[in-house]
Structures are given as structure tokens and as C-alpha cells.
Amino acid sequence: MATDHETSTLDARPSDRVLAVVMIVIATGAIVFSRDMSIMASVFPRTIATLLLVFSAALLIKSFVVHPRRARPEPGSVGRRLGLIAVMLVWSFALKWLGFLAASLISAAALAVLAHYHAWTPRRVGGYAIALAAIIGAFYTLFAVVLNVPLPVGLLWRQL
Amino acid sequence: MENLSFMMVAFSPINFLLAVLGVAAGIFIEALPGLSATMAVAVLVPVTFGMPPEAALIMLGAIYTGAIYGGSYAAILVNTPGTPAAIATTFDGYPMAQRGDGDLAVTLSTMSSMVGGLVGALALLTLAPLLAQVALKFGSVEYFWLAIFGLTLISALSEGSALKGFIGAGLGLLLSTVGVSVIGADIRYAFGSQFLLGGVEVISALIGLYCIPVLIDLVATPSAHLEPPEEGRGIRFGEGLSLMWRGKFNALRSAIIGTAVAILPGAGGSIASLVSYSEARRTSPRSDQFGKGEPDGVIATETANNATVGGGFIPTFVLGIPGTPPDAVILGALLVQGFRTGPEMFTTNVGVTYTFIGGLFIATLLMLPIGLLIGRYAFKSIVSIPKALLVPSIAFMTIIGTYAIRNNPFDVVVMVVLGVVGWVLSRYGVKPSPIVLGLILGPIAEQGFVQGYLMGNASGSVMGAFFGRPLSLAIIALVLLSVLFPLWRAWRTRSPKETANGH
């Protein structure tokens, strides 16, 4: 029968092995790509990459020798998580093309849909739209007008 | 006397207003479910870039002060600590709320936070200049070892496996080498991209690493909302004051513990509040009441966690090694403002430093009226903000804040990518703090390392350059202690189990 400890944690061996292998690849890559650098520029990243290699190898060996456990990750919707990552990535790339305001309004609306779990009523849609537009408008004004940050207008609108 | 006049600059109307806004913003963000004090500071750092350095620092210090305190509302009223530093506050705060004394617990928490904050700020004012005198004796090699000490300590003390902490720190250090090298001006790991020539921008990275994982987890469930608490009876100021007077030695002891723990780089408010809670219980004549709604429990934890604010700034300013994760964010902001931390903060930049300390005192005092008012009248509305508004608003602040640092859309892409990487690594047990610290301390560590290497080559002994000076050896001893301590701790926790299994 599973104990409380076992149900609240997971076997960490597979994830530790994946982490160790990825880090070994990164450390090895850092050493390989430092070959063309001067000694002064390469001595520090090489030393750090070597240490990273040692720590990762230790983690790999540890995963075979002992049975480490890790906290169970927070549960929840994978689809919504991936959706948020996709929206944030598209948002960051769209700034240049759509401009800051348009990209932000569209992406913020998409995130509101992703974060909302209840039924949409016309009143709720209107209320949230006004609140989001006000928040975005306030911060846009703060940065663009008060702090004088040149926020991108959008290449697309310039071409039209 | 001159230092006092610098402190008085903090009382200018604009600085005072910024302190008010900072404390209120910190409390507001921290009272929101799922958001930490580190995130509160990170997401608001870019707002301060257009300000003069002292005003920016005052606002950041005020946000941090407000945020550490703001975590106590949810801990007391709904048994959910808003920040790890408020975990121990739930032990007695929530039982107090259950028996109808939630409002009194909030008042006690506000008063205790103010006392702790004042003691921490006083320690910063008196101890930091003395330590800066010692730091003047440090050479480049000592700074290298200090950076390594900060990294090993934060890796060892951060939650989870120390080995994964070291891996995170190594990854952060490697990330700091991307772009043009500190010494030699070689282009490293840019892979032909002109955007990577400038390296990974520190503030973008820490906004990504601290904020994006929170957003990813916020959208995953509908349930992170807190149930609004029951209506309280009022502020109960007089009762709070008499309980504070009764617990004055407890408050003072907890504030000293909080300050001392925060001076140790890497150990934050959660350790400080847990240590002071156990001390308060050990020494109290009512120790059997702890965990059942004992006001001294709330006083101990809340005094200690706010004392870490001033205490944590001591290693941040004097050595350039952040005492707590929010200090790491403020250190990053200082670098962007063009400051080099270390003894210079008490020589060349003494005006900015003392104005900031003055601002910290103001922010701490302001916490009492602002905190009591928000706790009494606004907390219920804050926790009721729907996620469909919260998530896009925070996401927008991360995007606009990151863009504003260098007016560069590529920094926004880097922020989002690092945030996603940080979220994945966090699920594999690598927490963001060691990565962020590696990124911040990387250039300092590299400069010290390469200079030591060159000096060693010139004198014919590289080992002698790194291990030959007594100051270096003292710091190396601390590094070894910080590496060996988690191993000893793991061995100690394992051996009783093995003994039990053996029998």
C-alpha cells in the first residue's frame, strides 16, 4: 500500500537522468564552442562548463545509486499551460509587426480566455474588456508618455 | 552628519510619494494569490528605470517592504501564505482568525512587521558601513571567491537538492558568458546572432524566470482563488499595542534573528521566520499555546521576516551578494542604473545609499497606516480579482517592462523563452534563484577569476594567486562550509531512518 510520502512525491530517477543528460550536453557544447576563443575569454566558461559537467555526472550517477524522490508537480490543465506559452511567444514576436498596442490587446484577450473557467456572459465579457483595456491603457501611457519609452508602432501598419 | 542630510533627502515630497506608492503596490501584489515578493519587485523594476537612482531604490525598497508584509494577510485570514516568508505566520495567525481574532492578528502582524523592518533598517545603517571598511581590503580574487560563496550558499539553502542548486548556478554562470567577454572582448556563444552580442539582459532574465512560471501555473487550475475571509470587527489597535508591549522581548529577539539570518547570503525570510518562531516557542511561558492561536507566534514570524529586508541589503550593498531573492532583483536594478555594489556604495555613491536607507525607514513606518487600511478594507476585494484579469495584466506588465529596459523586442523573446525554460527546470527540481544569482554574479566572478589567473601566470603560480592570501582562505573555508553543510544535513536526516530500519 502506498504511504503518504510516496503519494505526495514521485520517483525522481527518470527526471534526474533527463536533467543530467541535458546539462551534460549543454556543458559539453559550451566547452566545444569555446575552442575558437582566446585563452582569456575561454578560461572562465570552460571552468564553469567543466564544473557543470561534474555536477551533472554526479546527478546521473546518484540516480542509479540511490532512489531520489521529488515533489509531485502542480496538477492542472496541460492544454491551458501550453496555450499560455504559445500566446506569450507569439506576443513577443508580434510586437515588432503588429505594434505594442495591437499585439498586447489581442494577446491579453487570448490570455483572459485561457485563464477563465466559467461561462461567458455578455456582461462579464464587457466588464473584463473594459477593465483590461483600462489596465493596458494606463501602463501604456505610463511607459510611452510619462517614461518616454519608444514602444513599437508596428511594421504592418506602416506598410498599409 | 553629512549622512543624516543624505537621509533627509528621502523626505522630499516626490520620494515620500514613491514610498507610499511602493508600499501600497507591494502589499497589493503580494496579497494576490500565487504571487511572491520576488515577483512583486521583479515585475515593477522597469517602472523605476526612468527615475533618478535614489528615487528608484526608494520605490523598490518600499515595494519589497510592503510585499513581505502583504503575504501575512492570506496566511492569517485564509491559511495560505502569500509568500514563503509567511509560512510560519499560518501556524498561529490562522487559528486566531478561526476563533474570530483575524483582525487582531492582522494588526499584530502589521505592528510586528514595522518593528522588524525598523530593526533591520537600523542594522543596515550601522553595520553596513563598518563591513564596507573590511570589504575595502578585498582584491579581485577575494571578489571571485565571494561570488562563489554566494552561489554555493544560495544553492545549498534553496529548496530541494543542493546538487541541483549547483547545476542551476552553473547554468546561470554560463548564461552570463553569452555575448562580448568581460576581459578580452571576444564574442562568445552568440552563434552569429547580433541580438546575442549584448548578452542576456539580467532584468529580462529574472522577470522571465520569476514571473512566467507563476503565470503558467496560474492558468492551469481554476482553484487558486482564495475564499474571501469573514468580516472582522475592526482594527483593534489598542489590544494589538498591549500584546506587542507584552511580547516586546520576543519581537526584539525575532528582529535580531531575522537580521542575522538575512545577512547570510541566500537565507531568506522563510528561514528567518521559522527559526524565530521556534525560539519564541522554546522560550515562552505559554509554549503549549503555540500552534493554537498564540499572538506571540505571529509577532515572532512577522518581526523576523520584515527584519530580513534591511538585513538582506547589508551583503547586497557591501559585497554585491544578495541576501535574499528580492535583493537579487534589486541588485540587478542597481547594475542597470550603472552602480557597482561593494565599498563604493559607502564612498563614491554614499549619497544614494543613505537616501535609500532613509527611504527604507519611511517605507517601514508607512507600512503601519497603509497596511492596516488595506488589511481592513481592501483585502477582500484584492483576493476577489478574477484570474481572467490577473493573468493578462501581469503578462502585459512583464512584456512592457522587459521591452522598456533596452527598447529591444528581442529581450522580450529572451524573457519568455527563459521563463519557459525556468518553468521546465523547476519541475525537474532546479529552482530559479541559483540561475538568477549565477547570471548576476557571473561578470563579477569572471573578472576576479581571469585577473587572478593572469596574476598567477605572471607570478608563476596560479594556485598561489587563488589560495595564497589569508582573506581568500577564509572565504574558501566558508565556501566549503556551505557545500558540506547540506551533505551533513542529509546524512543527519538519513541516519536516524537507517538506524530505525536496521532495528
TrEMBL record, chain A:
The keyword Transferase does not apply. Keywords: Membrane, Transmembrane, Transmembrane helix. InterPro entries: DUF1468. It holds the Pfam family TctB. The chain crosses the membrane at residues 18-35, 47-66, 78-94, 100-120, 127-151. The keyword tRNA processing does not apply. Residues 19-152 form the DUF1468 domain. This is Tripartite tricarboxylate transporter TctB family protein. It comes from Modicisalibacter tunisiensis. The lineage of its organism: Bacteria, Pseudomonadati, Pseudomonadota, Gammaproteobacteria, Oceanospirillales.
Automatic annotation (TrEMBL), chain B:
Keywords: Membrane, Transmembrane, Transmembrane helix. This is Tripartite tricarboxylate transporter permease. Pfam families: TctA. Residues 17-437 form the DUF112 domain. The chain crosses the membrane at residues 6-29, 41-64, 114-136, 143-160, 166-183, 195-216, 251-277, 354-379, 385-405, 412-429, 435-454, 466-488. It comes from the Bacteria. InterPro entries: DUF112_TM. The lineage of its organism: Bacteria, Pseudomonadati, Pseudomonadota, Gammaproteobacteria, Oceanospirillales. It comes from Modicisalibacter tunisiensis.
